[in-house]
From TrEMBL, chains A, B:
Residue stretches making up the Biotin carboxylation domain: 3-446
NCBIfam families found in the cross-reference section: PRK08591.1
Organism lineage: Bacteria, Pseudomonadati, Pseudomonadota, Alphaproteobacteria, Rhodobacterales
GO terms of molecular function: ATP binding; biotin carboxylase activity; metal ion binding
The organism of origin for this protein: Pseudoprimorskyibacter insulae
Gene name of the record: accC_1
Summary of the function given for this chain in its UniProt record: This protein is a component of the acetyl coenzyme A carboxylase complex; first, biotin carboxylase catalyzes the carboxylation of the carrier protein and then the transcarboxylase transfers the carboxyl group to form malonyl-CoA.
Protein name stated in the entry: biotin carboxylase
From TrEMBL, chains C, D:
Transcription found in the keyword field: no
Keyword Cytoplasm included in the entry's annotation: no
Organism expressing this protein natively: Pseudoprimorskyibacter insulae
Protein's name in the database: Biotin carboxyl carrier protein of acetyl-CoA carboxylase
An individual GO BP term: fatty acid biosynthetic process
Domain Lipoyl-binding, first and last residues per copy: 72-148
Amino acid sequence: MTPIKRIFIANRGEIAVRIIRTCRALGIETVLGVSQADRDSLGAQLADRAVVLGPAPSTQSYLKVGTVVQAALGTGCDAIHPGYGFLSENKALAEACANEGLIFIGPSPDNLDAVGDKLTARTHAENAKVPLVPGGSVDTVEEAQALATAVGFPMLIKAVAGGGGRGMKRVDRAEDLPAQLDLAISEAAAAFGDGRVYLERYVTVGRHVEVQILSDGEAILHAGERDCSVQRRYQKVVEEAPAPHLPEAMRKGLHDAAIAYARHINYRSLGTVEFLVDVERGEFYFLEMNARVQVEHPVTEAITGLDLIALQIAIAEGRPLGMTQDDIVLTGHAIECRLNAEDPDNGFMPSPGRVSQAWFPSMPGLRVDTHMTPGAMIPPYYDSMVAKLITHGTTRDEAIATMQTALKVCALTGVKTNAGLHAAIMGDETFQQGGVDTAYLPGLLARIQQGGKA
Amino acid sequence: MTPIKRIFIANRGEIAVRIIRTCRALGIETVLGVSQADRDSLGAQLADRAVVLGPAPSTQSYLKVGTVVQAALGTGCDAIHPGYGFLSENKALAEACANEGLIFIGPSPDNLDAVGDKLTARTHAENAKVPLVPGGSVDTVEEAQALATAVGFPMLIKAVAGGGGRGMKRVDRAEDLPAQLDLAISEAAAAFGDGRVYLERYVTVGRHVEVQILSDGEAILHAGERDCSVQRRYQKVVEEAPAPHLPEAMRKGLHDAAIAYARHINYRSLGTVEFLVDVERGEFYFLEMNARVQVEHPVTEAITGLDLIALQIAIAEGRPLGMTQDDIVLTGHAIECRLNAEDPDNGFMPSPGRVSQAWFPSMPGLRVDTHMTPGAMIPPYYDSMVAKLITHGTTRDEAIATMQTALKVCALTGVKTNAGLHAAIMGDETFQQGGVDTAYLPGLLARIQQGGKA
Amino acid sequence: MTGLTRDDIDHILKLIDGSDFDSLKLETGDLKLELRRKGAGPATAAPAPSAPAAPAAPAATVPAPVVASGGGSEVPAPLLGTFYHAPKPGAAPFIKVGDTVTEDSVIGIIEVMKLMNQVTAGVAGTVTEILAPNGELVEHGQALIKVQPV
Amino acid sequence: MTGLTRDDIDHILKLIDGSDFDSLKLETGDLKLELRRKGAGPATAAPAPSAPAAPAAPAATVPAPVVASGGGSEVPAPLLGTFYHAPKPGAAPFIKVGDTVTEDSVIGIIEVMKLMNQVTAGVAGTVTEILAPNGELVEHGQALIKVQPV
């Protein structure tokens, strides 16, 4: 057990502030590495110390492994928290930490290997007997055709090195397969420097459900699942926990599969196993494992009462979780809306700039994670997410009603935001019924665009 | 039933912001009357409109009845919310509202009469058979001596027109009574323009417990009690709900007495009946009734789940409460710490000035009501309270632990605050045991001053 | 055109550092410098209801402080109330653009709960603009008229 | 002493209005004007641990951008890392106060994870101050030395 005294936070925005919040509660000092564009950000003000890593572009600041490690060492930190995105699942950072005697607050380099490559992750899932979308890796057109015959169209060609929706091609007919496969391989080689691809059945109606894993290396527990089906272009917009209207057998199947996968790869840290739930077939398939804290972790915190960042730090210190599965009790329902600085009337273009008002008052059942303050600058270089509104209620209806009130009460002005879209989703009957799939949000946006009231 | 569309808020600081929060949730517009010193305050930024009433001193702005009413009329408001302090229990404002067709969000002028004068309030209590501290009004030394013989020393001489600790004199021996009485009468005449005084038994060890009343004129309900015994110079510093370690019979007795008093004066609105609980004798005595929302109302909101401001507005609109006593269920325990901009090392002198950082992040079980933002100005003209930290837990211990964490995490810098005192109280074993009396805080301060760790 | 010296700049800096940060106004010669923090301005106005007819009662006199401004002096409202241009409905206004006023010239009436307060110009000069409309609420400090001092 | 004209002031206002509000730096002639919002400055430093001994490896050269300043030019760190005054422990420092430097003069080394980066002055003049201590972390953009340009 190595108690951590000072954490270097290699991230920005709301997650940097979120990590600082828990560190202050735990009495751990923080040093925040910032780009020049973020030197006056809330995180930089709240951290015990902030150091400028480099210029605004992430490639010259937040993504420079050597600079981050040097900054952590030079400021006397004993651990690095990578947040999400940026270097959070970067094996080079985890290895550099190990070499320099720094604690990487995340899983081991081996764990990162096991989940980082999509094909390796698929193989692990097979070995762990976790259901996969029917499919497999292919090197030649002949292999692809044989696979397609066995699985059936429509199929999806995915780049092994892809992610977040990039490097995917849908193929509806056998005659299109050879050309699309060639195209996918050369595109993957160009985009990711890795031409490997694999084929999967294309699931037309699916829900995105993910299971939160906690592991100290011995005990591997789950903290329930989250439903993140409300997506636009593979970007999550609204998340909730638990997943509504899931048959209890399937819910238990998802939890068990996630634990089986984590156990198979000897996973140790916080992590999330993502599944695609095939509503038509009543089946679910492994998608991937995320070896970091997720943007949407607060909905799990709301229904479990856990502080996931504190647990992540404790695991990194080598402490046992000190609880069993029965100690994790799920209460009520939680919803998260990602408030983005973007213009819904203009193709959701990012809308950076100076915020004039930022007011998120305490309200019963509301939590807001944000780095916004009156006068804060939203730089154009990074993600446009500026706040997360999380509501928790006894029932899902109550959580929705609280979110509707919160969207009326809170204020973020000076930049355009997607608050109106969230109000439309919360007020939409289909969403209120619960259990929508990933086709839901594009459909709602089309309805709104056609002038029909959401 | 008269639905309110636009409310004029005749107040400032955190309570103005608190009222705006509920109005936004209800879809009611707000106009805030501010002094010149408050024109850039958070409330002025959040209200739909802000108008400058006059110069900084309250007597030239917040306390001018005519200006407030004119401003409400001139901005098209249909109601005035007076908050607490300032004009909140001012009969002239309530009457002016009635004359001008404005809804006064508070009780009737008659109700204000019935509770405004301490002696009248005492008489009502007697008639309502609500226990009073033994004593009564006196005009002559002879009457005072007769009363003292019957009640016994020590006694307290109180000015009828006094309040908040002003106009009180303790008398320990019969031979001191004549001179002290003369002094009290002339001081009262000089200070309040009203020389009337009354005598009461001086209760040496007492707890300040108050009962929250809700009345729509028909149903008169209580929302439990609050314990406000942690006081410094008659100023509440920490409040909690419910009152810890109260015998259940006494708790019920307090609730019943408060309802009896409110019913006797036909009270209609939100109100609070304050009692002194005599721990030695196991008795309680009526102190006074406050005909407004209290600073400490959030602890009641926390354990009841009610929005007291919303209820106050609904009653003013003429709506029935729509609930019975059984609908008000008390859950868990709540504590409020009043964060003041004052210097505990310098006799708690007010510490106005510009705030550099104001950060009160969402945390489980924490609510913060504040008008502070980074860069906000705390003017020297008004109350030094700048934020209220309210924590709610399943148990009192949990509420205290959450408050301790909140005091570590939250930041209000640039001015001196009493945050350290709150940390000392929350960490003090005597407070943690619960049920302290009004002598507690002066004792703790003396212990701290003597260098003994709190 | 008057130039600012380094001492002037030092003075600006002192004002900013030592005082209220949200806004700075500096005037020197015919130059007016005004800084205000974004988002810190007065809140935008909700529409006001139509005003009652101006009353004809005699009025108390309230001298208005004068605020110098680049394009002349603005006469601010000495108190909050309803501003009337004329002594009674239908009567001629106290002043119009182009009129010459002295410090004691009555420029309007501000009513607060039936109490009439005469407002005087507080500065001598020529009226260049009537800023506050007749019969509407004016805040304390709101500019009523503009006067080009003589 | 150069005076500011009204046009200069207009320029200041434009900079403030249109750009980042938290800080403004203006230089004209020998005058340096710097505004920074209270509380917006860099966070205060936690103590740094003692630095490792300066290595002797050969170094890549990184030109440093130059920031003009009232009392001379500050040479900022072109990247974050550990700043060393000398090519190896015990050796004479690259420069000392009073030295004359050219744009290409090496003024120190910044180490990032064993990679040595030589820093050049980027400006010609006389060294008036060594600002960043030997063997300690410097941030990107932190002032390393001060040079009075010739």
